[in-house]
Amino acid sequence: MKQNKLFFISLALIFTVLVFYISPLGNAFKSKSINDEQQNATKMLLTEQDFNLELKGINTTNINLKSLKGKVIFINFWGIWCPPCKQEMPTIQAIHNKFKNEVSFVMLAIPARGEELKTDVSNFLTENNYNFPTYETSAVPSIKFQSNAVPLTVIINKKGEIVAKVEGSKDWNDEASNELLKKLIKE
């Protein structure tokens, strides 16, 4: 009797794990691969108007996004109020360290209500030893950069096409992300 009970409990546990693993809920906990995101993203060519975005430097100089046209661009929309954003920051710092001379990084901070954006973000970057270029903007970015999720990362190739648009936190220092950036640099 005790063995039957143990058998059914074990069977129920295995069934629960399998159902969780193949269900949409389980998919939310699986690691994202840039390849998955890339396959779902259609290359979308950006226009001059899409690139015309004034960026005020928080830890760097002010620029207009159009000055980066013709380069590989890694744009990340994030906020210090966002736990998933904070979770991916060390991996973004790691790829920034590797690719900062070949890829233009644009970390675009999104303010929370009542936040002193420049001061609060600057303190956050300093406290965590992050040195990737971080900006703020008062303009509304192109609809092609917008999403209902934060963080949002958009990778643009040298032709000005969005080649990846990733919603949510991700390990940006994984092999697939490194290979994608290397490939885009060579194009």
Topology, pairings included?
Layout: H1 2-22, H2 24-27, H3 34-40, E1 44-45, H4 48-51, E2 54-57, E3 63-64, E4 72-78, H5 83-99, E5 103-109, H6 117-127, E6 134-136, E7 152-156, E8 161-167, H7 175-186
What does this structure look like?
By secondary structure, the chain is α+β, with helices and mostly antiparallel strands. The chain is 41% helix and 20% strand. A hairpin with a 4-residue loop joins strand 7 and strand 8.
Give descriptors for this structure:
eight-stranded mixed beta sheet, 41% helix, 187 residues, single chain, alpha+beta, globular
Q: What is the compact description of this entry?
A:
Helices cover 41% and strands 20% of the residues. The chain has helices at residues 2-22, 24-27, 34-40, 48-51, 83-99, 117-127, 175-186, and strands at residues 44-45, 54-57, 63-64, 72-78, 103-109, 134-136, 152-156, 161-167.
